[in-house]
Amino acid sequence: MKKILLPTDFSKNSWNAISYALQLFKNETCKFYLLNTYTPIIYHVEYVLVQPAQFGMADAVRESALKQLNDFKEKIATTFKNPKHTIQTMAAFNTLIPEIKDVVEVKEIDYIVMGTKGATGAKEVLFGTNTVHVFKNVKCPIIAIPDGFDFETPHEVLFPTDYEIDYKYHHIKPILNIISLYNSRVNVLNVSYGYDLSETQKSHKKILETYFTDSDCFYHSVSNQNVPEAITKFQLRNQVNLLIMINNKRSFFENLFFKSKVNQIGFHLNVPFLVIPAKTLNKS
Fold this sequence. Notes:
By secondary structure, this protein is an alpha/beta fold. The protein is 38% helix and 23% strand. The chain has helices at residues 12-24, 45-49, 57-80, 96-107, 129-137, 169-182, 199-211, 227-237, 252-258, and strands at residues 2-7, 30-38, 85-93, 111-115, 142-145, 156-160, 185-192, 216-223, 242-247, 273-277. It has a 10-stranded mixed beta sheet with strand order 3-2-1-4-5-10-9-6-7-8, sandwiched between helices. It holds the Pfam family Usp.
């Protein structure tokens, strides 16, 4: 049974991500954890020191969160009516990232599915702050869904890589799980600046090929382009439905997303984005 975490702030964007998850895994037996974290608006040091419970404010905020979670749960039940799926609601007096990390560990979550921005996210921002922090801090595969994206079957998957990763099964398993559901075609894209692959990169590529032996997988190489440009051009030529990257600190993932200002990245994500951590819980 797949265990999938669905963080929500009750925004339209988060409902869109929930809808995507329920459709992506429609044929799988799944338990979905619908999570909302809350802190009262006046939450600060003095508030904590005098014990918030005595004001009753945390209780009021919790009741509001639980009601909205239940509303979302009922909306899921009436919209999707899938007997393979069970929904558990979770309201936590905590900030988002620590709570997600705890839930991932305790519930042994397989995927987190979330929107790319929150209720107040600006359209020009590629990823909201919460999404970026989850990418950086949570050791679990994350599928980020662009604002307003309607579900598409992931027939064409784009997997850019610099072959600098010593691929392990836990890197590839989240990909294999999804592509096996839809007989997806995987397009592995290597972007270089005109240099041949090193012996280490060649070795890593061979390892990667062994994982995709039974899959419909194609290998592409482009040179003298930056990564955003290469991804954008590939997407324009092909009907890509899912972008996948491994978040390895030594790879171009870090350079692409965390060493540039968002508005300088040069492309805006218009398809779901599966981010796989280089390290997962209890694994190297």
